[in-house]
Design goal:
Layout: H1 10-37, H2 39-46, E1 59-69, E2 77-88, E3 91-101, E4 107-118, H3 121-124, E5 129-135, E6 140-146, E7 149-156, E8 169-179
Antiparallel strand pairs: 1-2, 1-4, 2-3, 3-8, 4-7, 5-6, 5-8, 6-7
Helix pairs in contact: 1-2
Length: about 180
């Protein structure tokens, strides 16, 4: 499957970019507010190493993600997220990450198109990032963090057939982007 913006109308891509920027701005404001309200959180956020990619200008990112999470029964289940190739700016990358699922429900979504704003690929490759994934019956958002710093967001194209009957799901995955 190709990962170019040519598969999506310009209007749709522009709308996803606006939603992505708005979501990132809200997440940054939420993190800053949490740091001001709780001294321990503020200390933790200030003690993080300087972000390698968070201060970079954002570029258009788009691609297809596969999100699979086995339900937890007697212990945590697994979450596996792969993407790619996907485009960040003019570079093709892949992503592979894993995490633990502490929710009773699983999820299995293949080839879901996400688009948004991320730092340039060169600043993300080789840096461990955390993806916080939020899925609802009508939308999907991936927040990208370096340490505790939000550095980008990706929004799902909600016309994906898999949204029909989807349950609320959220989880964290740690992984790496690689040049492809």
């Amino acid at each position: 499957m190709s990962n170019t913006l040519q598969e999506v109308s310009k209007e749709h891509a522009d709308a996803l970019a606006i939603l992505s920027k708005t979501a990132l701005d809200q997440e940054i404001a939420r993190s800053e507010a949490a740091g001001k309200q709780n001294a321990a959180i503020g200390t933790l956020l200030r003690s993080q190493p300087e972000s390698k990619c968070g201060c970079q200008p954002k570029v258009q990112a788009c691609g297809y993600f596969c999100i699979s999470a086995s339900p937890c029964a007697c212990g945590p289940g697994n979450i596996v997220v792969t993407a790619g190739p996907m485009a960040i700016g003019n570079r093709n990358v892949t992503f592979t990450g894993t995490g633990a699922n502490f929710q009773p429900d699983g999820i299995n979504m293949s080839n879901v198109y996400f688009s948004g704003q991320l730092p340039p690929a060169e600043s993300l490759v080789g840096v461990q990032v955390r993806l916080h994934i939020e899925i609802t019956p009508y939308s999907g958002t991936i927040y990208v963090y370096e340490n505790f710093t939000p550095v980008g967001t990706l929004i799902a194209a909600t016309q994906y057939a898999g949204w029909q009957g989807a349950r609320n799901f959220s989880g964290d995955v740690y992984g790496y982007f690689y040049l492809s």
